[in-house]
Design brief:
alpha/beta; Enolase-like, domain 1; 3-stranded antiparallel β-sheet; two-stranded parallel ribbon; globular
């Protein structure tokens, strides 16, 4: 297996629910599913307002991470920006300062305001690791990547969360924390919702 991810292998996709430090995209809790395939861990966590064919590309990306793995990295450290939720000026300043990044992506309104927010990744370190793999494999990387969003979560699923230090995240192996998976299992109703959503999306994907 290429440089990637290690940890306990769940028999089936496992659901998680993690709190957000600040309300983002109209939500205060981030939900999704993680699982491990032959090549490593994958995360599937499309936002709840995504529907139909929008979900398929998220699923295909997750399945590629689990089944195929990633190309060899061309760099070992990725320059990232900080994501600033739609908060007041002082809190925005404090978040940007704590992130230590040279570039910030500032949200100017919550969902339902005149300016709609863009997608954002708000994923755990499992999903962010896939984004880092892509960034590491690009021939040129002239801009800071929007991959420092684990810091917006109240906790994470990795033993060593992928959070920027001095504006950089290292491309390294990811160890998933089984205790964190157990701790952040959502309610039975939420699990059923995600399981049904996964089935419908696989049907849309033709698989």
């Amino acid at each position: 297996m290429r440089l990637g991810q290690t940890g306990t292998v769940p028999d089936q996709p496992v659901c998680y629910a993690l709190g957000l430090r600040t309300r983002f995209r109209g939500i205060s809790e981030r939900q999704g599913m993680v699982w491990r395939g032959p090549a490593g861990w994958a995360e599937w966590s499309p936002f709840l307002d995504y529907q139909g064919s929008e979900l398929v590309s998220w699923l295909r990306a997750a399945e590629e991470a689990a089944e195929c793995g990633w190309p060899p990295p061309l760099r070992t450290d990725i320059c990232v920006n900080s994501t600033i939720p739609a908060v007041g000026p002082q809190e925005a300043y404090e978040i940007a300062l704590a992130a230590g990044c040279q570039t910030a992506k500032v949200k100017v309104a919550e969902r339902g305001q005149p300016l709609t927010q863009d997608a954002g990744r708000l994923e755990t370190s499992v999903g962010i690791r896939a984004g880092l793999a892509l960034a590491a494999a690009l021939p040129d990387l002239p801009y800071a990547c929007g991959l420092n969003t684990v810091a917006l979560l109240t906790d994470d699923l990795a033993k060593e969360p992928l959070i920027a230090v001095d504006g950089m995240i290292s491309v390294s192996d990811l160890v998933v924390d089984q205790a964190a998976l157990d701790k952040h299992r959502p309610s039975a109703d939420t699990v059923r919702f995600w399981q049904a959503r996964l089935v419908r999306t696989r049907e849309l994907a033709g698989g």
